[in-house]
Specification:
The chain has 400 residues and is α+β, with helices and mostly antiparallel strands. Strand 22, helix 8 and strand 23 form a beta-alpha-beta unit.
Length: 400
């Protein structure tokens, strides 16, 4: 279906000769295009990636689009995103940004906090405003950046350069306590030896605001990067991040032990397959001596195509979906515990209606099955596909 947009006073399709020039001018004057997939229209924004301009979905507006529109998203309650909307994640209709409430701090006072990360989403339910854990923030940026989406046409075209660009674009439409998240976010750029000095200078400028003060609280920064290796230090461990040579992240020994316990599954997947990526999100600060020290950390395993996975069963499903020409979307947990069901993926443009793909692990209990049944019956506008791992091989995908 040809997509049409209202840009200023003009209505243009993507294939119109004037479309590119109109997009460039709209980006220059900060004008929002309107997707005309439905009668009322849906505001979008323009992103500039690798000197090219793209129209992208505004935060949390996927359900406003027509189901046949490429910007449509299935119901958010199929994943861990649903419970956070309106609480931990709020859409500012005026600015078009998503305001986040975090359950971790971006400043530090007193003794070092456990860097192993809390058992994200694994504790008892509390009657309080939900906030995003460190893992949930990573999932949010991955989702908003479109990095959960995949089609076979993109094979071989998603590398760290593209991942970084999409994450930065997602952060640009995100605020924390009224300030742009991008101001406190470090994502390493592709390292090139011939630009080593310039890259290090840009990184030093980005970190200038979090240098350890002589007194009072110190600021922390969020880093998202791919783990290259874990290495021993004289005291504790250090994490080497790809594209950041000479800039290790230091971790105490006790925190390292907790990290290995909390993220045993992610580490096991990463070590089992050389094509997998291990993505770390950390809050970190700088010591007076210039060392980067981790305050909190969370890990996420991802396939060769940078699609997040939790276990080998999800990997099998994602590998099958990655060969399809139709677009699939990977579901993410955000704050939700592993004992709660989510749609592992969705086929959002499938006809006559979208499909949600669920995996029931072999150790699932009756509560898991009951909750899943409630989720499926609550959405008769979405077809359910279920793989009960304990019963055998993955069933055929619901292609239509």
């Amino acid at each position: 279906m040809s997509r049409r947009y209202r840009i200023g006073h003009a209505v243009l399709a993507e294939e119109d000769p004037a479309f590119g020039a109109a997009l460039t001018e709209a980006y220059r004057i900060r004008q929002r295009p309107v997707c005309l997939c439905c009668e009322k229209g849906v505001e979008m924004y323009i992103a500039r990636i690798s000197e090219q301009y793209f129209i992208k979905r505004m935060p949390l507006t996927g359900s406003d689009h027509d189901p046949l529109c490429q910007s449509y998203e299935p119901p958010y309650e199929l994943s861990g995103l649903g419970p956070l909307i309106g609480g931990a994640i709020q859409l500012d209709q005026v600015s078009g940004t998503a305001a986040l409430k975090l359950d971790f701090s971006l400043s530090k006072r007193g003794a070092q906090k456990s860097a192993g990360g809390s058992a994200q989403g694994e504790g008892p339910v509390k009657n309080e405003v939900r906030k995003l854990s460190l893992r949930a923030l990573l999932h949010f940026l991955w989702h908003q950046g479109g990095l959960t989406e995949w089609t076979a046409h993109w094979a071989g075209k998603r590398h760290w350069f593209q991942v970084r660009s999409h994450l930065l674009e997602a952060a640009a439409t995100t605020t924390v306590k009224g300030s742009a998240l991008s101001d406190r976010l470090l994502i390493p750029e592709n390292f090139r030896l011939d630009e080593k000095a310039a890259i290090e200078q840009r990184r030093a400028s980005a970190l200038a605001d979090i240098r350890a003060p002589s007194s009072g609280p110190r600021k922390l920064m969020v880093l998202i990067g791919e783990v290259k290796e874990f290495a021993s230090a004289r005291s504790g461990q250090k994490i080497i991040v790809k594209h950041m040579p000479g800039f290790p992240l230091m971790m105490e020994e006790g925190a390292w032990r907790r990290l290995q316990s909390r993220y045993a599954g992610e580490l096991e997947l990463w070590r089992a397959n050389d094509q997998f990526h291990l993505v770390a999100i950390t809050t970190f600060g700088m010591t007076h001596s210039g060392l980067a020290t981790i305050d909190e950390i969370a890990l996420m395993s991802a396939t060769e195509q940078w699609l997040p996975i939790e276990n080998a069963y999800e990997h099998r499903l994602i590998e099958a979906l990655s060969r399809l020409s139709s677009k699939s979307v990977k579901g993410l947990r955000f704050n939700m515990a592993s004992t709660q069901p989510i749609a592992a993926a969705t086929l959002r443009h499938r006809r006559p209606k979208p499909a949600a793909l669920y995996i029931i692990p072999p150790d699932a209990n009756e509560d898991f099955e009951a909750t899943l049944s409630e989720m499926i019956s609550a959405r008769d506008d979405v077809e359910a596909w279920v793989w009960r791992v304990a019963e055998g091989e993955m069933p055929p995908l619901p292609l239509g």
